[in-house]
Amino acid sequence: MSIDDRRARVDALFDQALELPPQARGSYLAESCAGEPDVQADVEELLRLAATDAPALKPGALAAGPLLAALTGEPTVAAGQRIGAWRVVRELGQGGMGTVFLVERADGQFEQRAALKLVRYGAGSEEILRRFERERQILASLNHAHIARLLDGGRTEDGRPFLVMEHVDGRPIDRYCDEKRLRIDERLDLFLRVGRAVQHAHRNLVVHRDVKPSNIVVTGEGEVKLLDFGIARLLAPTESRLDPPTRTVARILTPEYASPEQVRGEPVTTASDVYQLGLLLYELLTGRRAQRIDETTPSSLERGVCETPPMRPSDAVSSAADDGICAARRTTPMALSRKLRGDLDTIILYALRKEPERRYASVGELLDDVESYRRGLPVRAQRDTPGYRTRKFIARHRMGLAWGLAAALAVAWPLASLTGERLRAAREAERAAQVEKLLGDLFTLPNPRIQPRPPAARDYVDHAARLLRTELRDQPASRARLLTVLGQVYNALGLYPASVEVLQEAVAVRRARFGGESLEVAESLRRLSQSQHYMGRYEAAERSLHQAMAIQRQRLSPSDPTALQAALELGDLLHSRGRLGEAEQTLRQGVAALRASGADREALARGLQDLGNVLRDRGALAEAETRYRESIEIFRALHGEPNLAGTIAEVYLARLLIAKGELARAEGLLAANLVRLRGIYGGDHPVTGTALRDLGYVYIEQGRFAEAEARLAEAQAVFHQWLGSEHPMVPRARALQAELELRRGRPEEAASLGQATLDQFARLGLADHPAALDACRTLGEALLALGQPDRAAERLASCLAAAQRQFVPGDSRTARIGEALRRAQGIKLET
Length: 831
Fold this sequence. Notes:
Elements: H1 3-18, H2 22-32, H3 37-50, H4 67-70, E1 82-83, E2 86-94, E3 98-105, E4 113-119, H5 126-141, E5 150-155, E6 161-166, E7 170-172, H6 173-179, H7 184-203, E8 206-207, E9 216-219, E10 224-226, E11 233-234, H8 237-242, H9 260-264, H10 270-286, H11 298-307, H12 313-316, H13 333-340, H14 343-351, H15 363-375, H16 386-396, H17 398-422, H18 428-442, H19 457-471, H20 476-492, H21 496-514, H22 519-535, H23 538-555, H24 561-576, H25 580-597, H26 601-618, H27 621-639, H28 644-660, H29 663-681, H30 686-702, H31 705-723, H32 729-743, H33 747-763, H34 770-785, H35 789-806, H36 812-830
Antiparallel strand pairs: 1-2, 2-3, 3-4, 4-6, 5-6, 7-9, 8-11, 9-10
């Protein structure tokens, strides 16, 4: 063995021994160094020196002579000591390769705190120094929201390398999840963010090789950061020349989180990170480690990691009742086991296959399966059978199928009763046969064998509408009532044109049957107004609602719950039309009256949510948040958790958090609820477009422009598909697209999008809508950047006047518009 190979072997054994408890090091070295007493003696000497206070390391010693001659000890780094441009505040922790200190800027350029990593005393071999330098290079190549940023690097006066990273004040991800008592879906959301960070590293040819809870920190705001690329390996071609992958001395690992190929000394690729992400997911969901290492000897390590299969996650939690694992996940052992059984079991065990080639081919495939699970879609790790896909389809479309079944039953029950009345004098057998045929027709779609796909909820609702029109031709009262029910079903499914069509028919039938001033007509008009509102036909919606309210004023007392609900619906409609002052007043009055009556908690919760939306858009953020929280609590008390109404309210709350600058919380809320909504609706729906749009807004504020572009494009695709190109949701999303281009430094594109947005808002009669004012400000700032201060000042002046009318005093949007206007006017004066 050459001197260099021996030194490298001693270094690797020394690093591994440092990770072990002192009492375990002897048995580890005895087995690892069998037949190599000289190597064992060198490692033992290093361990002794590392634990001994010794004289200072001589400058230049690292480059000369054998390893032991270089290691003569290091003085302790004291608080206040300066390293480069940084002053040490205190020690944060130690690892196998370095010591980490909390530091602050000492050069007076600006105030900043960071984490400085310095080579561990007594571990200054050339191999370790090269590894430390590599960590600095790796971190400099990575730029991702969930990876701790590299701020600085260099060498101390005596030649020791250091790097300075973003200081993340938080808790390891496993502790954070347990302390916050996060549910399984919320833990999956955090896991996906970690996975995207690892995926980003892989795209930059970096393997982390030490993905474990202690290297993933979550801040109090829910921001995830992946730390410590200290043992990462660059996948560049030159790497194999400098550090042969098969060299067993390079096994730097944490036993409980090691991959089989790390333990066996085989080439370490991205598959190793897939395996470690599987270990992380196992622990986050079950509260237990997938790999149990009973002893620290190489043979027991290899047996525990390379040979022993992990227990199925759903089985691992079956006995978790006594240790708080289920309580930390807000569930019970039976419910947790049931949640994990099936797709989650399969995903985790697929990632944890011992053979790298049999795991997911990439981190992206693992993340795709987790996303598919959350959306109720089939996962690639499962065996693809017709029964499996059918179960996933039913689960994915449970809301739509439930609505369809409810509508069908709503039609079937009165049809059966009416048929019974009509045939009361007929023979019993004939009556039974007719009722049986009617119900059979209701639940049987025509030509089922030529259906190009499994029937969706809309198929059943469309069939029910056709059936009641034919079977109830002579029963106008029942036909109109059931058309109104079907209109609500279409509305809930996001099928607004179909809803408007059947509700207009219901209004016409009820007017002919009961008269134009009847409460039956008022009910259908209210439902029609809701669908016209969501369809974007605001003027028609307001006309329909005012007609309904005029009838109610004649026939009902002002405190009647139905009349109060109509008032709340008017407030919500005024908000959509951008008439914020009127909307706030109407909603405040309606909420106060409904609260005093105590009659309808569901309507009160919706009113509080709508009031929160108005207050948020006006800039009264503190009160808006209070209203949202109260609304969500009522929905939770009424329907349990999770529930659709509360989920939608949380999407609206997320936009408030963006306005407050709480971006990590907003991102987590939107990402989790987007998955939940897609699961409920069986795919996209207009409300998922809203979540996508606001997620794009978060990414703009975070500077993640590529991700923002993708989310906003998704939102626009949903809006165009479900609502059409002239729906107000389209320019609201385009206003954010204009802002994105401005932030990217593309003022021409920003000006073009901003102008198109304002033109469409004007056509829709929404020139003072908050999103229109945002687009106006973006356009003004873009024109300034293009050297057109006259046009910018003209735009910004009208925008400022509208903002002062719409927003509360002191609102930041008004201030930003005013600042842009002053800049434009200042440039005009100079020229």
